[in-house]
Amino acid sequence: MSGLPAPTAPVRAAGPAPNPDTINTLRAAVLVLGRRLRYQTADGDISATEGAVLGRLCREGALTPGDLARGEHVQPPSMSRIIERLEQRGLVTRRPHPEDRRQVLIERTPEGVAFAERSTAVRTEWLTRQFDRLSPPDQQALTRAADALRRLSTLS
Amino acid sequence: MSGLPAPTAPVRAAGPAPNPDTINTLRAAVLVLGRRLRYQTADGDISATEGAVLGRLCREGALTPGDLARGEHVQPPSMSRIIERLEQRGLVTRRPHPEDRRQVLIERTPEGVAFAERSTAVRTEWLTRQFDRLSPPDQQALTRAADALRRLSTLS
DNA sequence: TATTGTTATACTCTATAACTATA
DNA sequence: TATAGTTATAGAGTATAACAATA
């Protein structure tokens, strides 16, 4: 009657099982908030993922397309297009990898640094306003969980 | 040199300003995790947003397209298409609104309930596995922040 | 043969604008 | 005139498959 496979039994390590309600609340909230963050863009701004890549290059220095794809959890062809668009706007440049001629190093330009600062400020503003409207306990809970959420998002 | 407007000064209520690093960590994590959740689908499954709509109909009963669009923070035409696809698969039905003939009530079918249960289980499984790999303090921080994140995602 | 990256292609999600029907 | 919903259209984001270059 439908093509969806039955769920398999999850392989679990020791420890109490996380509450499924917690997991589903997290999932639903991340989906909605992610969509809102992705579509909340100012005129002339780059996309959310482009911004994330540019920000990473500003923080971490030159990286290869493969590094960036793994860091942002997108497929290599997607990263190729992101880099292409950033390059067309003069926000990043490429240079050959010194040791492996298959690879390329992507680097932010000075314009890229300036752009990233303004873009991040604009994007942060909206979320900050939302955050401000939460109760103090909610704000505190989120402040304490931010790094955990980042680690959750980047697990292989 | 670029089309991005300068950020305006945020209008803030009382209280300490949230740490911009916290906000940006949250933003980056939600974007990456949202993308991964959206693209992590099993064969024959519905999309993440379709699943969220179906789940809401299962929890809350019959709702209008407008209610659903506001609840999931998508535009009305987007919700129209989501409903259309769910209807084509026999997971929801429509019936006239008893008091206002402009409106429509969308309702889950029995097949929709069964499908939602399996789909949610499959989607929850992946996130549960990831969650399990976090340290206990990280798990605790996220458990305590889940409802706050939901409220953050649904603020008008 | 394996790895890195790109090109070609296609699909999904979502948005905005314009329209219809009802209030 | 305002509201609820749909249709038409378009664009952005991402994926998979196939290819080229290098290790």
TrEMBL record, chains A, B:
GO molecular function: DNA binding; DNA-binding transcription factor activity
InterPro entries in UniProt: HTH-type_Bedaq_tolerance (IPR052526), HTH_MarR-typ (IPR000835), Tscrpt_reg_MarR-type_CS (IPR023187), WH-like_DNA-bd_sf (IPR036388), WH_DNA-bd_sf (IPR036390)
A Pfam family recorded for this sequence: MarR
SUPFAM superfamilies, alphabetized: Winged helix' DNA-binding domain
Domain HTH marR-type as annotated: residue spans: 19-151
Keywords associated with the record: DNA-binding, Transcription, Transcription regulation
UniProt region (Disordered), positions on chain: 1-21
Keyword Lyase among UniProt keywords: no
Protein name (record): MarR family transcriptional regulator
Source organism per UniProt: Nakamurella leprariae
